[in-house]
Amino acid sequence: MYFKRERRQDTAQPQGSAGRKYRGLQITAECENGRIVAVVGPTASGKTDFGFRLASELSGAVVGADSLQVYKHFNIGSAKPSADAMSAFPHFMIDVVEPDDEFNAGAYRTLAHPILKKLCAEKTPPIVVGGTFLYVRALLEGLIESPADPEIRKQLEDEEKIYGTDWLYEKLRDSDAVSAVAIHQRDSVRIRRALEIFYSTGTPASQVRRSHGFSDGGFDCLKIGLTTDRDALVGEINRRTQEMFDGGIIEETEQIRGMGYSRDLKPMKAIGYRQANMLIDGEITKTQSVEDTATDTRRFAKRQMTWLRKEKDIRWFVPEKLSEAVEECRKFLSA
Question: Within this chain, do residues 136 and 285 fall inside the same structural domain, yes or no?
Answer without folding.
Answer: yes
